[in-house]
Amino acid sequence: xxxxxKNDIYYLDTASLSVKKVRVSARQRLLKLLRxxxxxxxxxxxxxxxxxxxxxSPHERQLEKDLSVAEARYRYLSDRMDQLNEVLTxxxxxxxxxxxMIFEAEPPAPKAVLHNNYSEFKENTLASAIIxxxxxxxxxxxxxxxxxxxxxxxxxxxxxxEEHMKHVPAIYPINKKNSRMSSGFGYRFHPIYKTLRxxxxxxxxxPQGTPIYATGDGKVVVADRSPVGYSGxxxxxxxxxGFSYESLYGHMSKLNVKPGQKVKxxxxxxxxxxxxxxxxxxxxxxxxxxxxxxxxVYHFFLDISPEEYLEIFEKAxxxxxxxx
Length: 324
Ligand SMILES: [Zn+2]
Known about the structure:
Blueprint lengths: L9 E4 L4 E4 L4 H29 L3 H45 L24 H41 L12 E4 L2 E4 L6 E4 L2 E4 L5 E3 L4 E8 L9 E8 L2 E11 L6 E2 L4 E5 L9 E8 L2 E3 L11 H12 L7
Antiparallel strand pairs: 1-2, 3-6, 4-5, 6-13, 7-12, 8-9, 8-11, 9-10, 10-12, 10-13, 13-14
This protein binds zinc ion.
The site of zinc ion has 7 residues, from loops.
């Protein structure tokens, strides 16, 4: 008896009326195996294609979730940058006003803008969000840098302004209580020549020996009795305040400073007298701007009340006789 194998194929031989085994060659077996293999591979390929294109792996699902979170965060950052840029724009406007209104200066010109190239992001899924936010961050950084420079300049201007304010002749040169405005700036009758002459300062009548104060910080450039170029002034002192301001004090009885000496506003530089061409004890006070004599009345603004100023201003307007 022939033992039947599971995969063997048999056929009925009608001639011998017996069941015989179909003989299959090794080649045929190999071809059959290859056929199965090809069909199997094809089916596997189809299954793989479907799974890749129509089903997502847990890892892909996680990536997608992360991507949407990242997009939301970029949008949030972008909105925050918009808000910060608005704040900075407001600071910029206020800064420009500060320059123009307080310091009477032009604000600094905007600096060259830093420009980054974000083309490497172009193919990225997050491209538009990243580019937009990055550009906003760049703009913000540039504006912030410009603002920082501007603030440095404001600080410097404020420092200069403070120096300027200390130097400009701005106080009444002698104690207002024991003095009086006698004659103002403009054409006045000269007490000695008895003609109408240009009076280049103000005369403040005060007792002999009344202290005279420097009206602003500066350096004494003239301190002498009738020096060359100051004929008629008697004992005279001139202070160079810098910032194109000078002040002059004439007809003193005595000096309290020397040429080259630095003085502060309020320092006693000398005492009231009647030296030189003078008709009585008084201080002849002049203020010069860029070498040109101006009305000193407009420079009394620090230690004076509105009432006092009005009184001095009205008295200085009178076309009377100067004390010289
Ligand atoms: Zn005078």
